Amino acid sequence: MNREALMEATKSQMPERRWKHVLGVVDTAVELADRFGGDRDKAWLAALLHDYTKAWPIERMEKIIREQGLPPELLEHDKELWHAHVGAWVVRTEHGIDDEEVLDAIRYHTSGREGMTKLDKIVCLADYMEPGRDFPGVNKIRELAQHNLEEALLAGFDSTIRLLLDKGKRIFPLTMLARNDLLLDVERRKQERD
Ligand SMILES: Nc1ncnc2c1ncn2[C@@H]1O[C@H](COP(=O)(O)OP(=O)(O)O)[C@@H](O)[C@H]1O
What we know:
By secondary structure, this protein is mainly alpha-helical. The protein has a single domain, classed as Hypothetical protein af1432 (Orthogonal Bundle), CATH 1.10.3210.10. The protein is built from 10 helices and no strands. It has helices at about 5-10, 15-35, 40-50, 60-65, 80-95, 100-105, 120-130, 140-145, 150-165, 175-194. The site of adenosine-5'-diphosphate (ADP) has 12 residues, from helix 9. InterPro entries: Diverse_Catalytic_Enzymes, HD/PDEase_dom, HD_domain, YqeK. GO terms for molecular function: bis(5'-nucleosyl)-tetraphosphatase (symmetrical) activity; metal ion binding; nucleotide binding.
């Protein structure tokens, strides 16, 4: 499938407002790939597809999680997390996307994970800071992203974790692991620079 057809297929899964967000993430992810030496084609593709099932009915996603062997612990956590794993499964099944790096970047774009690849980081950060985003702290994340991929993403995870704590919500453990791992990564990189 060519780029235009894949864009049309993606657009048809969601309302206009979500599509605008996706286009913002695509532009931002490609910019970040250029800035930090990532693969811009993979960044484009993963960003385009990252929210493929975001607007799907919860029941449809739940069925896929249960029937296709996706991590069952997802069902005990915020439904906002489901679309990332379900989306990776659907784009492989429906569109034959078989690049594991791209699929992982889609799968972990909401939660993060330990040992995030550069592509994982780029897509996750682009999702936090695309131009349509407006939440306390987003400008700080954008400033950090001018120079430091890991510090910017760490600030993103910290803001999500803070928000979840303030709301008294459960925290998907992978995000804590991602955050701790990233902190080590940031400290290691700082030491290397000094
Ligand atoms: N570790 C987590 N545990 C529980 N919920 C989470 C976690 N990380 C993210 N979320 C939920 O997912 C939401 C963000 O999901 P995201 O895919 O970025 O959606 P959107 O693009 O609509 O912001 C957060 O606002 C929060 O409700």
